[in-house]
Amino acid sequence: MDKVSINGNDIYEVDEEMEALIEAADLDGKVPEAEPQRQYYFIKKARRYVDELAKELGRRPLACSVAFGCQMNARDSEKILGVLKAVGYEETDSEKAEFVIYNTCTVRDNADQRVYGRLGYAGSLKKKNPHMKIGVCGCMMQEQVAVEKIKKSYRQVDLIFGTHNLFKFAELLCTMFESDRMVIDIWKGTNEIVEDLPVARKYPFKSGVNITFGCDNFCTYCIVPYVRGRERSRDPKDIVREVEKLVADGVKEVMLLGQNVNSYGTGLPDDKKISFAQLLNEVCKVEGLERVRFMTPHPKDLSQELIDVIKANPKVARHIHLPLQSGSTEILRRMNRKYTREQYLDLALKIRRELPDAAITTDIIVGFPGETNADVDDTIDIVKQVKYDNAFTFIYSKRTGTPAAGFEQVLSEEEIKSNFDRLLKVVQETAHAQSARFNDTDQRVLVESLNEQDASLVTGRMSNNTLVHFEGGEDLIGQFVDVHLDECKGFYYLGHRI
Ligand code: 5AD
Ligand code: SF4
Q1: Domain assignment of residue 354, given as a range
Q2: pLDDT tens digits for range 364-373
Q3: 392 Cα nearest atom in ligand 1
Q4: Taking 90 as the threshold, does the pLDDT of residue 5 lie above it?
């Protein structure tokens, strides 16, 4: 990624190849219909609006992109920031900016509430800055009630769009600049996957790479299939090409992203169809790439082929995130998870046997409608047997429009909270014991940052996703180094470089 100089100033951050295509757009001609050419046209057009604003301000306008939710959303926000930089905004962390965009999550209600809080705050900032524009996008905007609420109660918002038309962001920015009303564009779904748009990565040395979009699993508690749409797989050639470009740009570690990576390939034409295990193998072949992660596999179809590919490829990170959700077969059935507690346990223990150095982490929901104390006992029993390296525990949150929203609760809020607490206690105990098993070993880590508390330390990530703090300076950031683990501190280690 280079900065492109216009009139001697470093302004637009896009790669040179893309810049040539953007510059080639003819603003006096017809708007191209094909993508991504259409967006290149609008990037060039948006630059005029942003340049005008820059003249008025006497400096580059600032843009702040705030992401809620999962890795998928974090990656989408890098695409948003890519366009904002390509049209001439300068990035800032502060919401005191000329353009602030919130990329929302709606997986649980508390994610929604945080967005409303931030929109209120942004509204107060806008009163002080007449040039400020506010955008809201992402999963929550795919729900009509949320959009209605913003239209009614958050009138300071200038632009709303959803998950399916993110690729049109440059075009929507132009519409926003040309309108004095709230611009709203929400699509119900799409089959389109638009490649080759600008991306501004948060880290120069690691990156997410989308492999599928959407989800077809319809777990009964989950809003994702409704807000992210039907599952679509990217062409494997496009994925490998993106990884190669990232590596050429300095990336050493990629994370392959999909709601259910195991089902990668379904829907691709026969001549392109490959399994996730085959894709992983292809990605590992990219020279210069040092580590590959993936998120998230569904336990119902994690294949032996995948385990074999991981085993044979030292580049694949030793970390499997294997969402359990519940350890009760009856609750799993009502969640539509398509596996029993025995099937899950067999798989998890097989991974422990075949990939002994891999960390296994999980997601668990407590308080699913109909769940009893005995069901939670079953969940705790699985935690004790698998001994997760880490587990994310959530209290069930009712999502309107999902089947489970109509299921009846049998436990009180207090009982659910107490089940949550007893699960958390076991999770913490087992996770602590589990991470300590690497004490006194040597590990290769990718150094990600300076330590937040102590600037003489850096923080690196092990293959199994655990963090290690050790002495070192800024020059190590983005490098793979070998570290000896001296002391386990629960969820992280202290170590020294060897
Ligand atoms: N309530 C609580 N947790 C949920 N998750 C998904 N939907 C809900 C919900 N309605 C959790 C699941 C999933 C993780 C990303 O979020 O555990 O794996
Ligand atoms: Fe990610 Fe799901 Fe939240 Fe959307 S709703 S941001 S897909 S976790």
Answers
A1: 327-437
A2: 999 999 999 9
A3: 17
A4: no
* Structural domain includes residue 194: no
* pLDDT tens for each residue of 69-100: 999 999 999 999 999 999 999 999 999 999 99
Please report how the helices 276-284 and 236-248 are oriented relative to each other, as an axis angle in degrees rounded to 10. Answer: 30
Helices (H), 193-328: 224-228, 236-248, 276-284, 304-312
Helix (H, G, I), strand (E, B) or coil at 281: helix
Half-sphere exposure of 56 (CA within 13 A, CB side): 10
Out of 256, 287, 317, a domain closes at 317
- For residue 71 and ligand 1, the question of a CB distance below 6 A is answered with no
Q: 114 C-alpha vs ligand 2 centroid, how far in Å?
A: 14
Our mutation pick for probing the ligand 2 site, out of 115, 137, 224, counting the most ligand atoms within 8 A of Cβ, is 224
Question: Is residue 4 very low, low, confident or very high in pLDDT (cuts 50, 70, 90)?
Answer: low
The values of phi and psi at residue 451, to 5°, are -65, 135
Cα of 61 from ligand 1 centre, angstroms: 38
Task: Note the pTM of the prediction, 2 decimals.
Answer: 0.94
Give the tens place of pLDDT for each residue, 300-357: 999 999 999 999 999 999 999 999 999 999 999 999 999 999 999 999 999 999 999 9
Cβ(107) to ligand 1 under 6 A?
A: yes
Over residues 28-38, mean pLDDT? 97
> In b/e form, how buried is each residue of 189-205, taking b as 16+ CB within 10 angstroms?
ebeeeeebbbbbbebeb
Mutating to test ligand 2, I would choose from 71, 103, 107, 296 the residue with most ligand atoms within 8 A of its C-beta, which is 107
How does the average pLDDT of the chain come out, rounded? Answer: 95
CB 252 within 8 A of CB 214: no
Tell whether 284 is in a known binding site.
no
**184-194 pLDDT per residue, tens:** 999 999 988 99
Same domain, 301 and 383: no
Q: Phi/psi class of residue 466: alpha, beta or left (left: φ > 0; alpha: ψ in -120 to 50)?
A: beta
User: Same domain for 358 and 483?
Assistant: no
**Amino acid (one-letter) located at 263:** S
Number of domains into which the chain is organized = 4
Mutation probe of ligand 2 site: the residue of 228, 363, 399 with most atoms within 8 A of C-beta: 228
Which of 421, 437, 453 is the last residue before a domain boundary? 437
Residue 1: is its pLDDT beyond 70? no
Residue 129 host element (H or E): none
Ligand 1 atom 16, closest CA:
107
